[in-house]
Give the backbone structure.
Amino acid sequence: MREFPDILRRNRTFIILFAVMVIMPSLLLGLLSLRAIRSESVQRQFKQKQRQRQIAGLLETDLKGWLFSPKLNGAVSQSLLRFTIDDSHIVFPDFRFAIPPERNATQVPFASSKRTLRNKEPLNEVDASLDARTIENLYYPRIQAFLRDRDLGINSSAQYFLRLKAMVVQFPGTHNGYVLGSSQLMEYAKRRLDDLTASEDFYGVFLITSPGGLAESALSGAEVVTLNDFAFFRVVFTSKESGGFSFQKNILLYSITLMTLVMILGVVFMYRAISHEMAASQLKADFVSAVSHEFRTPLSSILVLVERLDSGRVSEGDMLRRYHHTLRQETRRLGVLIEKLLDFAQIQEGKRKFSFERVNLAEISAEAVGLFRESDQAERLEEIHFGPATPTYVLADRTAIVQCMQNLIENALKYSPSGSPVRVRFGRRNGTPFIEVLDQGIGIPRREQKKIFEKFYRAQNARGLNVQGTGIGLALVKRIMEAHGGSIAVQTTLGMGSSFSLLFKKPLEE
Ligand code: ADP
């Protein structure tokens, strides 16, 4: 993890690009859409409020016309209890009372006001034996509004008695009026409001309350409009949308979701890139230490042998031969390693040239096996011909294929118990020419079977074995086979053994 800042530094351009091309535009997009939606919804709300006030105004005008109209279709025709106003008294057909009520007033014959409206709604019953105080409590304090048309200088009044649920209306410019039950008023207002809001996306509900008698906070999301001249009439407007999931809200939700998705994807993408880079740098570090180790081992044994030979102490012919044999083997090992590294570098840069020729699989296989003749593992190797007895020819770069086989045989010997057989099989299977190397070794864990063909990759179980390796052999083989239009395949069972096959494109005619 200490390499993390390093990786960040190396990926700076990518991170900056990502921030500029993905994160910043999505943030900007999000902010812009938020702003657009907000201003849209503010405008919409503003327009809606304006419209609601308009409707409340229309209702009020209408209501006034209806209430104060002396015509037949007006409220008058529906009211029964008419009165006139005589100086400071309201005079009903059977009784009168003073405005304001006189403190010292004695009994008022209210009993006679037990009248019924034309639509059979009983007007309130009032006890005839009420004293002035009670009358005052019942009536006067309940009067909520007086209307006065200042322009025309006409006085009129509409007074609502909460307790009686009745409205006392005075004709404009006259001293006459009538009493109207509130249910009629409500009914009329409801019908009008329904008409007025039919094409709107909100409803209107008509309420009669005392000023301040409506807890507006209790109507969250609703708009309450008080009619100008009737402080006790209110219209509560509520949205027709159920659940409140408007189009705008949906757009906002979608764009936020999209933005979050883009960000998550970006972060995942970046995390993957960085962890990939970390794994690659770990592989490289392992590779460097493996290569140095591979060089050091033969070099140090060469040095020891040469020193002993120099000292002149080794004179016996047999011993000398053994020393020379080991020296040759170690030098060869170094040569192979250097060759492998150079080949790998060349193939990585795409500089490796192949010279294709017609080759016999049996010959190639024998040549590769022959390379191990002098090694102390020679007797483990076994060659098997597979399929038709006729020789199989393919178009291939002889040296490159021998090199591939050499890698496979070395691996088979390395990753299997000493003494166990390693078989080289070649021939044709279902028409496909192949050469394969089989061992009875450690096998490869399933999840690593693809990775072993990546450069520098070494499987977990191989690393635990304390067997030297650089992790470039199979990568090299894979590239060479791809250059031949063929492929490499592996079949392996953990702890049982593996078989690596070089598969060629098609056989050549004999
Ligand atoms: P190395 O130099 O490590 O052998 P290779 O590229 O040749 O590199 O092989 C990559 C890895 O594949 C090895 O480290 C080992 O884990 C695995 N591998 C290759 N051949 C065999 C085999 N015959 N048996 C088991 N594991 C093998």
Summary: The pocket of adenosine-5'-diphosphate is lined by residues 407, 411-412, 415, 439, 441-444, 452, 458-459, 462, 469-475, 498 (CB under 6 Å). The chain has three domains: 68-239, 267-350, 353-503. Residues 107 and 131 are 6 Å apart (CA to CA).
